[in-house]
Specification:
The chain is mainly beta. The protein has a single domain (about 5-150), classed as Lipocalin. Helices cover about 10% and strands about 40% of the residues. The protein has one helix spanning about 5-15; strands at about 40-45, 50-60, 70-80, 85-95, 105-110, 120-125, 130, 145-150. The protein has an 8-stranded antiparallel β-barrel. Strand 1 (about 40-45) and strand 2 (about 50-60) form a beta hairpin. The radius of gyration is 15 Å and the shape is globular. The termini are far apart. About 25% of the residues are buried. This is Copper resistance protein. Keywords: Signal.
């Protein structure tokens, strides 16, 4: 395996294992989303398995009250030697403004209820979200970390 793939896989595994930093307070307005549920799906790389199927469902829009902006996230591991259970999270999402490279970018912060991983997704375009790190930086293999709107 290439070192980049190993590093990216390790970083992704750390994110999925719950090693991300806490929420930030720099909220910003985002492009409008429909009131209905929006679904994004994709398969992320996995160091020890054939991939991680990710299903993210966002409900509400930036005009909604915080408790009305909800999400559910399901992560399923393909052919993992330890056969871990699916990871299921639900909670609220916020819109953050900017990334390290693009101050005008839109980032969604998904914070689960109770304990769980906080996820950060860059809105690449109307149809694509990309998993990014808690400091809002893109990974080198960013095209492998993208989810497509269904």
């Amino acid at each position: 395996m290439q070192i980049r793939t190993l590093l990216a896989g390790s970083a992704l595994l750390a994110l999925l294992a719950g090693c991300a930093a806490g929420p930030t307070d720099d909220r910003a307005a985002a492009p409008e989303m429909d009131d209905t549920e929006v679904v994004y799906q994709g398969t992320l790389p996995c160091r020890n398995c054939d991939g991680i199927d990710l299903d993210v469902r966002l409900t509400g829009d930036e005009q909604s009250a915080a408790e009305e902006r909800t999400f559910s996230l399901q992560a399923t591991y393909r052919e993992h030697p330890q056969n871990p259970p699916d990871e299921n999270y639900a909670g609220n999402w916020e819109v953050l403004g900017g990334t390290a490279a693009d101050p005008d970018a839109t980032v969604y912060e998904l914070t689960p209820d109770g304990e769980g991983q906080i996820y950060y997704f860059l809105r690449v375009d109307d149809r694509t979200l990309e998993l990014i790190d808690p400091q809002r930086r893109r990974f080198q293999n960013n095209e492998m970390l993208q989810l497509q709107r269904q």
